[in-house]
Amino acid sequence: MASIIGKSVKRVEDKRFLTGKGNFTDDIVLPGMTYASIVRSHHAHAKINSVDISQATAVDGVVAVFTGTDIANAEIGGVPCGWQVDFKNGDTMKEPPHPLLVADKVRFVGDAVAVVIAETAAAAQDGAELVSVDYEMLEAVVQGPDALAADAPLVHDDVPHNTCYDWELGDKTATDEAIENAEHVTKLEFVNQRLIPNAIEPRAAIGHYEEASEKYTLYTTSQNPHLIRLLLSAFVLGLPEHKVRVISPDVGGGFGSKIPHYIEEALMVWCSGQIKRPVKWTAERNESFMTDTHGRDHVTKAEMGFDADGKIEGLRVKTVANLGAYLSTFSTCVPTYLHGTLLQGLYTTPAIHIDLTAVFTNTTPVDALRGAGRPEATYLLERLLDNAAREMNVDPAELRFKNFIPPFDGVDQPGYQTQVALQYDSGNYQPVLEKALDMVDYQEFRTRQAEAREEGRLLGIGFSTYIEACGIAPSAVVGSLGARAGLYESAQVRVQPTGKVSVYVGSHSHGQGHETTFAQVVADKLGIAMEDVEIVHGDSESVAFGMGTYGSRSLAVGGSAIMKSIDKVLEKGAKIAAHKLEVAETDLEFANGQWTVKGSDQSIGFGDVALTAYVPHDYPEGLEPGMDFSSFYDPANFTYPFGAHIAVVEVDPETGKVKLERFVACDDVGNVINPMIVDGQLHGGIAHGIGQALYEGAIYDESGQLVSASFMDYTMPRADDLPMFELDRTVTPCPHNPLGVKGAGEAGTIAATPAVVNAVIDALSPFGVSDITMPLTPERVWKAMQTQTKEAAI
Amino acid sequence: MGVPISVTVNGQHRESEVDSRTLLVQFIREELRLTGTHVGCDTSSCGACTIIMDGKAVKSCTVLAASANGSDITTIEGLAQNGELHPLQEGFKEEHGLQCGFCTPGMIMTAVQLLEDNPQPSEAEIRHGLEGNYCRCTGYHNIVKAIYHASRKYKEVSHG
Prior knowledge:
The complex is a heterodimer of chains A (794) and B (160).
Chain A: H1 14-18, E1 34-40, E2 46-52, H2 54-57, E3 62-67, H3 68-73, E4 105-106, E5 112-118, H4 121-129, E6 132-137, H5 144-147, E7 163-170, H6 172-181, E8 184-195, E9 204-210, E10 215-220, H7 225-236, E11 244-247, H8 263-275, E12 279-282, H9 285-291, E13 295-306, E14 312-322, E15 352-359, H10 374-392, H11 396-403, E16 416-417, E17 423-424, H12 430-440, H13 442-454, E18 458-467, H14 475-480, E19 489-495, E20 501-505, H15 514-526, E21 533-536, H16 554-581, E22 588-591, E23 594-597, E24 603-605, H17 606-614, E25 628-633, E26 642-651, E27 658-668, H18 675-694, E28 725-729, H19 747-763, H20 778-793
Chain B: E1 3-9, E2 12-18, H1 24-31, E3 50-53, E4 56-59, E5 72-74, H2 87-94, H3 104-117, H4 123-129, H5 141-158
Parallel strand pairs in B: 1-5
Antiparallel strand pairs in B: 1-2, 3-4, 3-5
Helix pairs in contact in B: 2-5
């Protein structure tokens, strides 16, 4: 039987989505269900003097109204942060509470003040509109660096200088020296702008308390239902965990924004307990804009020093990271351990130092967004590289070849120890860039570019050679860095008596196709048909435990847990097969779903062995019946995918509009189980990265109003903004997990943004432009051309 | 107060009484329990709620249920016939045109009209035709291929 690993098997999950039979949280209706509407602050910063609910409770159909005072009186803690980062001086980070409903003051537009529950969604909305809140306006602080000003208003009264923590990584002395002594220093000050994730499925949550069993069920649009259950029961509501069930059915995209434990989840569960009926809340898109955690928002100053040969000597970074009004679940690790630790990139830079301050502002909380920290690190490095090449008059591809870390496989050669804590697992960086250069026909492009310039046309090419840390994460390592959770994964492989297999996994798909990829792995390893494998996820009652899906971890970590359970199945199966065939286990070999006596045609099939395990009449002595194995897998290291992305653009000199002509990518994500799905992940990631470069950006006015809070005001790429993507790959297997896989979910987003910006800067090089603030709107590009032209003329 | 409406949905005649403010998408999802039609933005920007109404692809979050009175509606649930996937559904599967599946019904219903109007569209025409629909997962790459795939199938059918 030919292996189905590495084959573009069509997706198992497609049929239900294609026929309208998906099961998303908002599709669920429970008997006796009520509907919640949340009263949210219209002000960024204001003291709450009073909340009057009398008119709301009088609305026909309104069942109950709760305010921040009710939550405070019930002594419910806020939603916790999952990662502790300490100040440089060792003090613990500032961790102000994030209550389910605020009672004292609101801290961002969208902060939840009250909840109205009614028989219909419309009545709940009517009620919410009649809740009257008396606010006393306070001055707001919006931008990260402004929060550090001596006279800045305080978002939390007990957090001085609005500073959550300050943090550093790397050798400061060596880095200062390297920059000081460098032949050439390239400097860049930039904003990595705030993005709004906008999964197309809005967040939703249903709380369901059942009096008879005293059990709580939460249906939620989450990437990690078990984590939500743990936080909800142990930290927020103080419920017994075994009496709490969390179900995430089909989830319509997440991109990081459905990782955190949100107040609405705990609120719906608590409200259901109060009124003894199910309560459903579904975000309107405007609420998604205001309350789904945002991403990025760094203000950075970076300097890269080179020697006379163009070798990087040092990298010095200073960043202010804006965390928003409250700490979201993983907010604190994104600018630090997912950003600072990636500043080695693919390069041999001998000295690196980052100094970072994380601040509170009167804005939506910030957390992981596709890539999470790694796009910010890659943007920083790759923009510096292309700018340095221009300044030193070196080809940007050549500059990268000169600085790449030499190949290492992590088996015969050790992993690469970076200057910023991580040890890369395996890498071979030169071939990805060589391949991408071939794909784009680089020399031909430079000729075409020169000819176009003669005609007054502005063509540009931009590079990005990236690395990311995925397969999150070895628990002991992240624990030592402040994580308050382990980041292993679990998988249970249950072989049924008929030889059909159910696999219960703790990761959770929100578009990644786990039901297909995991089934391919299981079917292949057990030598059975894919149709005989069912992947079960998203329900804490059927799946033992899990940490969920983010950080491109599901196959690298969750797939490894599956492999461990498969090994246990095959080990037990061999004992049964040996008994049935009356030979020693060592005389057997397993292939194509059969145990065969070596050198003979005597064999027994997987199905027969499974049946024997459940009907153990003729059975090995002392062996337990049944065939059902659970495993937990804690990875030995992160995985480190890498690649080279190249963008080709044409800028309209009249309007400043950027047309993305081509996008070429050569990625190495280790071994590939389903190329079709991996390519799909890359396509989506690239589009997201292009979105940041050209279109997307959250805009707050000075008073803290989120001005870009609708699809009319926040631009995302549409179909006719993008070209067909040209992809290829190399394969450098991960040396430390059984499938040799590295992860592909975030690569595109991490790599694409600087490639596109670099391409536009390259197109505008005749104007002497070296930086434009993202997103590169026609207005900004046009202005850059005018300014520089004027300055050149002077 | 209740407004009586009478509509045909996926070939079935339906009569009901709706609130004057009830949106067509709410009627389809909540009253008819056809939950394949999704709400992504409630402002007619994302296209997840697209259905075919009297032969035209419309965004059902921006139509009042009352004003749909007398119309003939097809939702994603009505596209496959006799258990056979529609060529567009087939195309999306073959070309991996969906990931999370949330925008998919709206994408497909939009593409139904796109191919109706222009059975052999170019890549640019497909992309232009999808301007009213957001997808956050696929980068549109495989959606474009899926619609092209379906258009080839249409061609085979029309050429016998």
